[in-house]
Structures are given as C-alpha cells and as structure tokens.
Amino acid sequence: MLSMHVESDRSWKASECVVTEPSTIKRAITAASVGNITEWYDFGVYAYFEPTIQKVFFSNLSHTMGQIATFGLFAVSFLIRPVGGVFFGFLADRIGRNRVLAATMILMAVGTFAIGCIPSQESIGILAPLMLLGARLIQGFSTGGEYGNAMTFIAEYAPDRRRGFLGSWLEFGTFTGYLLGAIVVTVAHSALTEEQLLSWGWRIPFFIALPLGLVGVYLRTRLAETPAFAALEKEADDREKAQAVGRTMKDVMVLWPYLLVCMGLALAWNVPNYMLTSYMPTYVTQTLPMMQHAGGMSATSSEILQIVVMVIALLSIPVIGWLSDRFGRKPFVLVGSVGLVVLAYPMILLIRSQSEVAAFLGLLIMGLLLICFSATMPSTLPALFPTKLRASGLSVAFNVSVSLFAGTTSLVVGSLVALTGDLNWPAYYLAIAGLVGTVSILAIREPGGATMWGSPPAAASLEEAHALVTSRPASAVPVAPAGSRVA
C-alpha cells in the first residue's frame, strides 16, 4: 500500500494552524464553483448539440464518418489538456492559484463564444471545421489549467475536517454546468424548427458562455490567494521562486507513485463522466435506433432523461461529500469502482432496451456510481501532492489521464461500436475503468481528515484549531519516495 500519511515527531500548536474565516471559505468555494459551471457548461453544450454540430460542420460526410469526426473534435480538446495542465499548473505554483483560474476562465469563455461565430461548412467549406478545431484547442488548453488548479484552490482553502464536503461543491458546479447546457439545448430543440436550429439557433447557447465567463472572472478576482500558498510564499526565497521549470518537472516526476495513483483515479472517475454526459445522448438517439433498426428515442426525450439524472446527482454530491468527512473517502470510491465492474453490463442492457423507463434506470445507475467519485475526488487527489508542487503535479497527472483515456471515451467507444457492430462496448469500457479505480484506491491510505502535505493543519476557527492539535498532536506528513526534494 502506498503510504500517504505517517506520524512525524513534530507537534503542532494551535497558533501554527491556518485559520480561515467561514465567510472567506464560502466566497472561495462559490468563486471556484461558479467558474466550474462556466467551464463545463461549454463542454456540455457541445456534447448535447453533437448531432446538430455534425450537420452544420460535416454535412458533406456520411452519418457514421460525420459522427466520428464530431467526436474527434470533442476529443482533440482533451489531447491538448496536458499542455495546458503543465503550463498553468507550474504557473499556479509560482504566481498563485487565483490569477491562473481567472486567466483560464477568460480563455474558455472566448473559445466557446468563438464557436458560435463560425460560419457553416456549406458557407466556407473546409475552413469551418478547421476553425472549430482551433476553438476546441483553445477550450482544451484552458480546461487543462482550470480543473487541477480549481481542485487545489478549494482543497487549500478548506479546513481539514470539512475538505470532503467543501470539495464536493466543485463538482456541484460541474454538474450544474452540464445541467445548464442540457436545459439550454433542450429548450432550443423544443422552441425552434430544424431549419432555424441549423441556420442560427445552435449558436445561441455558445454566445451565452461569454457573460457567464465574465461573472466567473469577477468573482475569482475578488479573492485573495489560498492560505496554504500564501504561507508557502512567505517561506520561499528568491532562488526557489526563480527555479527553472525543468527542475520543477524533475521534482514532480520523483513523485511517480502518486502520479500513477492520481491517473488511475482520474480515469475511473472520468470515463463514466464522459460516457454519461458526452456519449450516451448520441448512443441513445442515433446509434441504437440505427443499429437495432428500431424507432429510437427522440432527442428531447433523451435530454429530459439526462436532466433528471443530473438533478438527482447534483443533489446527492454534497451529501456524499459530507458523509466522506465522517466515514472516509475510500469506502465511496470502492463502491463506485466495484459498482462499475459489476453493473456495467446490466446498465447498458437497460439503456439498449429503448424503453424510456428502463433507459432512465440504466442512466441513473451510471449517474449514481459516477457521483461516488465526483463527491470525493476533489478532496482526495490534491492530498496526493505537497503544497509547493500540488497544482503542477495534480494538473499533469489528471490531464494526461483524462486526455488519453477519458476525454476520448466518445471517440473510442463510438468508433469501436461502428467497427465491430457490438453495442456493448460502453459496458466493457466502464468495467475496465472500474478495475483501474479499484486497484488505485486500494493502493493508498485513507486521506479523509488528514492535514494537507506540506501545509500546517487547517481550521475554520481558533476553537477548531485547538481541537485539531489536541486530537492529533503530531502532524500527518506523507512519505515521499526516496530521493524526493519536496518532502
């Protein structure tokens, strides 16, 4: 078992604890969550508008090739995420989390707004998908710096005893963004004719991203830097702050066991995430009817089912986050991982039935297993890395995993289904993700309630600080691999 926390000889005093006022914590969580709403609204709109985008930008291709091309453009934004993760992760460890989060929000809003401005393929030919590719690359570069830094931002603001609950609000923002995207697309489908939708209606949801982004930037720029980073900044001398990125990368790579665990957990979390939110809308409305020679479910019905599932998940995430502060993160991650292995095939069979009730049950099972990760990962993954390398280590591992294995879910599974004719590929993919998640979570010790690596204990009040040092007199410090310069 990878040892994350052991007792050191040092005892903390209450005066050494980081105490952050609850009002400040609340503003920090709100700013990060609102930013996440904007980021994932943008991705959600693209996913739910996939059939329409296919007709606008790939009208000259066959249905199957157009679908693969559209999924490919969805996936390409993930392939550049590690570049954004490395750039913004290292930048956040140097200049602070808050500035970087404001920059990534501006980039994402601009990239999404730009998609709404692109002429159709019929108007400008091959330039249309090329311009869409450029906008998607901007989105991917932005998101690479957004999510790892947002997790770091919230984890470093949160008191040790409430990190699970407060961290879960980041994913509350994610699901809210997806939900908002689904609602806007559903309204567009219901209110507009097919001709209006293809002519101009599809652009409206992308234009909405700009004002959402401005609100997020305003909220984020009003916040101070995280307490953990501010404390580290005071201790750093000029030589350390001017260190080369090459050395920082070497320091990160020394933490390779934690990088691997982070990648495994990110894979298990994000494969069901993108399976549910990105692939299932097309699988239900297009793939199943075409390959099963049945009438299929309408786009509006599919979107309504997705909205209901996401509302249930949305309301459940803070509850599981709160419970994880009391019972630990590992039990919930294990339930999610083992559940993916055991229930992947049954849930896909339910969805394949094309009955709206059965399909809803299948999607709901997938959604409930997903939130076992969504509610716990924002507090689990940042604990794998020390403060001075937290944003860079987390961003690199998380984005490489999502780029290679999770963000490409729609493209890979859609292509495998088209090539083999086997409609059960979503189940196989989910089961593999569950196996990876099970191995990864069993490799670490329980992180719930522990002090963040490289940081003093964190509390919401002086009374809580006294209680922390009384109940845990010695600091919990992760054991870094041999040769590490960061412990």
List the helices and strands and how they pair.
Layout lengths: L5 E6 L6 E2 L2 H27 L1 H8 L5 H17 L1 H15 L1 H21 L3 H4 L2 H31 L5 H29 L2 H8 L1 H5 L1 H13 L5 H9 L2 H4 L3 H10 L1 H37 L6 H29 L2 H23 L3 H19 L2 H4 L9 H17 L2 H12 L4 H18 L15 E2 L2 H10 L2 E4 L10
Parallel strand pairs: 2-3
Antiparallel strand pairs: 1-4
Helix pairs in contact: 1-5, 1-7, 1-8, 1-11, 2-3, 3-7, 3-20, 3-21, 4-5, 4-7, 4-20, 5-7, 5-11, 7-8, 7-20, 8-16, 15-16, 15-17, 15-18, 15-20, 15-21, 15-22, 16-18, 17-18, 17-22
Note down, in words, how this protein is organized.
- By secondary structure, the protein is mostly helical.
- It has a single domain (6-231, 240-477), classed as Growth Hormone, Chain: A, CATH 1.20.1250.20.
- It is 76% helix and 3% strand.
- A two-stranded antiparallel ribbon has the order 1-4.
- α1 packs antiparallel against α11 (209-221), α5 (97-117) packs antiparallel against α11 (209-221) and α15 (256-292) runs antiparallel to α22.
- The longest helix has 37 residues, at 256-292.
- The radius of gyration is 22 Å and the shape is globular.
- It starts with 5 loop residues before the first strand and ends in a 10-residue tail after the last strand.
Q: Helix fraction?
A: over 70%
Q: Could you say which overall geometry the principal axes of the C-alpha atoms support? A: globular
Number of strands: 4
Estimated share of beta-strand residues: under 5%
Mean pLDDT, all residues = 81
| CATH topology tier name | Growth Hormone, Chain: A
- In DSSP terms (H or I, runs of 4 or more residues), the helix count works out at 23
Unreliable stretches (pLDDT < 50, length at least 5) are: 5-9, 235-246, 473-487
User: What's the alpha carbon Rg, rounded to whole Å?
Assistant: 22 Å
Identify the CATH homologous superfamily: MFS general substrate transporter like domains
Structural class: mainly alpha
Cα distance spanning the termini = 19 Å
User: From the coordinates shown, what is the CATH architecture?
Assistant: Up-down Bundle
